[in-house]
Amino acid sequence: MEEDNNQSTAVKQNPLMIAVVAGVLILGGIGFLLTRSGSGRPASEPAVEGVSEEVALAQEVRDISLEAGSFFFAPSEIRVKTGEKIRITLTAKDLMHDFNIDALGIKIPVTKSGESGVVEFTADTPGEFEYYCSVGQHRANGQVGKLIVE
Ligand SMILES: [Cu+2]
């Protein structure tokens, strides 16, 4: 009788122990991930203030990937900060597409399906600027977007 009791107690405790250990591991893992993602990109966060942010803005090139298809840009809105150096990589998902911001004199030449084109510039003028595809009737069909320099 006593042995039976002891065994069943041990069996009951084991799953509990496993659950506790698993819980600690999961919580630890989540905490670790949160800590990592929290510190992963300090340079672009406003939490870093003053001089260090300006240095980061002056030195880093911000990569923005843009997909072009019939008839859209994804994303259709890009937000950057005044003074940021921007590198836009346009990838055509079908047909052929280009990228133009007339007001800033920015252009990625016609890019065929599956290929990519790149343009680099410094967003030194605050404002909202339309970008569009100049191929055929793509712009009229809605292949436009907005660059917001804030
Ligand atoms: Cu197009």
Automatic annotation (TrEMBL):
Keywords: Membrane, Transmembrane, Transmembrane helix
Top-rank taxon, per record: Bacteria
One Pfam entry name: Cupredoxin_1
Chain ranges of the EfeO-type cupredoxin-like domain: 58-144
SUPFAM superfamilies hit by this protein: Cupredoxins
Transmembrane segments: 16-34
Descriptive protein name: Plastocyanin
